Amino acid sequence: MSPASRLFAAISIVVAGAPLMSAQCSGYDSVPLWIWNPLFYQSSLSGTQITDLAASVSGWNNAQTALTISTNPYDDIDVSVDNSITDLGDTYIYPMAPYTGCANQYDGCGVCRNSNVIAYVDIKVSTTLIATEAAAYTSWTADQRLTSVLSHELGHALNLKDLGGSPTNCLQTSIMYLGNGAYTCNFIVAQSYCDGGDVNAAYSDAYFEDWDLDDPDFCGYCNQGAC
Ligand SMILES: [Zn+2]
Q: How far is the CA of 195 from the centre of ligand 1 (A)?
């Protein structure tokens, strides 16, 4: 085999492999992303909703290795019930610019806190709509449906995209399906192949700041000049 034909063969393998992954997985938006690890969540949920949220968080921690989600002491991801929304769940990502006083300021570790950096995320769920839908799809309880919605929205909180269509391979697919796609494969939490793979890819080059005030390498605040 000549060098030229070896090169051609290598390129063919790469090109043939790429569409298979994108057809099954949602992928992610390259910005904005988190610069902290672990991420912390707080919620105003009550009763079994708290257990449902913990299960969805565990699902993400098990599916990927890029970052850890834990509860308290910070409110990076805030989860609440809002029965005025028209979706089962909504996720709102607020980047450093323009939503914080740190907008376009360097911090002590040289990171520019701009629109590429997530400051905080709000997740809202409609428990009214979730209960109505769970009753229509009797294979799942309202708690299971809430867990799946929270899992989907947490995917958005990590900046994963939605996934259209219907699952064709339940071993290689995603909690990020729109609508009722998750029912087909009985997905309640994040899946390793797509969801974990997408988060690992999104944060493969991430620089995570230490956010422990007691540590000597604490990055300080965003008072190091404009950027
Ligand atoms: Zn979505």
A: 13
pLDDT one-digit tens code per residue, 188-225: 999 999 999 999 999 999 988 876 656 666 777 788 89
Query: Which residue reads 């009985």 in tokens?
Result: 186
Q: Which SS3 state, helix, strand or coil, does residue 39 take?
A: strand
Picking from 66, 22, 71, the residue whose alpha carbon sits closest to that of residue 45 is: 71
Tell me how far the alpha carbon of residue 119 lies from the centroid of ligand 1, in angstroms: 20
What whole-number distance in Å separates Cα of residue 187 and Cα of residue 147?
A: 10
CATH architecture designation of domain 3-202: 3-Layer(aba) Sandwich (3.40)
Beta-carbon-side half-sphere exposure of residue 49 (alpha carbons within 13 Å): 18
For residue 212, the CA-to-ligand 1 centroid distance in Å is 32
Distance 200 CA to ligand 1 centre (A): 19
CB-CB neighbours of 210 under 10 Å: 14
- Name the residue type at position 24: Q
Model confidence at 1: pLDDT above 90: no
What is the residue-averaged pLDDT of the chain? 86
